[in-house]
Task: structure prediction
Amino acid sequence: MVFAVQCPNASCKKYQLVEEHDRGKVVNCLLCKTPIRVGGGAPSASKPQQPPAAKPRQP
Ligand SMILES: [Zn+2]
Result:
């Protein structure tokens, strides 16, 4: 199963797909290389608990 995570970089916000086994790991954004924590919520708790829209943007 794959799911989408969103880059926490405010000037990037790119969605990318990660695999279920990457949950709990940190992946780097493909664009800006910002570390993205997979699962467990975003590192910045500025938003209430609400997952991002699961659909990655079509190019
Ligand atoms: Zn990014």
The pocket of zinc ion is lined by residues 7, 9, 12, 14, 29, 31-32, 34 (CB under 6 Å).
